[in-house]
Amino acid sequence: xxxxxxxxxxxxxxxxxxxxxxxxxxxxxxxxxxxxxxxxxxxxxxxxxxxxxxxxxxxxxxxxxxxxxxxxxxxxxxxxxxxxxxxxxxxxxxxxxxxxxxxxxxxxxxxxxxxxxxxxxxxxxxxxxxxxxxxxxxxxxxxxxxxxxxxxxxxxxxxxxxxxxxxxxxxxxxxxxxxxxxxxxxxxxxxxxxxxxxxxxxxxxxxxxxxxxxxxxxxxxxxxxxxxxxxxxxxxxxxxxxxxxxxxxxxxxxxxxxxxxxxxxxxxxxxxxxxxxxxxxxxxxxxxxxxxxxx
Length: 295
Description:
- The chain is α/β, with parallel strands linked by helices.
- The protein has 14 helices and five strands.
- A five-stranded parallel sheet has the order 2-1-3-4-5, with helices on both faces.
- Helix 5 packs antiparallel against helix 8.
- It is globular and about 55 Å long.
- 34% of the residues are buried.
């Protein structure tokens, strides 16, 4: 806090003169800026005397974030995003960028305006809103976007999709139904919610059973919805074995759909051990696995 900083400054002023402190600090900055190991310098006084001809303070400013080196890269300027959005133009590009920036209000306004101007709602879903989400997924996979970015983008996309579906009078056609749940005993559902969001974004129809879902409810959902696959997530080691129960019960009850699993405590070897049909490391990877298994 401020008191600590003030006390540190007071002690430093008592122990070291301003001139000594400044010289010491500039020496460290110089060494770090030019990749010199200060600990290897035998003649420190000689080195300090050389400090007078530091001329490139610009490098030091950039090195310590005092000054930004060039303009910050915008999300849409990322090469992979440029490639994804290359097929979009006009209002479709605008909508894709709305999703990329997670701007729900602007997405709603632009979708409504596009529909009023005669754009096909299905085309807007497939070639604008989903393209924006593809770009978000790419940045998330690269570690440039994070969980809050995903959730904002997902909300924006799904809100736009809802407006398109309202205009259509029915839900858009989906590639397949996927049952999603967090297993019995596990109250954590952020991972499951992200899977639902990514599946929606990629044209699937997720059947969201929620969290802490009893095994019998998963089987009941299989019988009711006839999904192509199910996803089960768990965050805790104390609930991960419930995944085995889900897999075994589904097989026992004659459910032919595949079951894939994931979560912080789950590994590929565990998925193989319990007889699951696949493992995904995160929500974005889950969609790729679903598409691979459904080919």
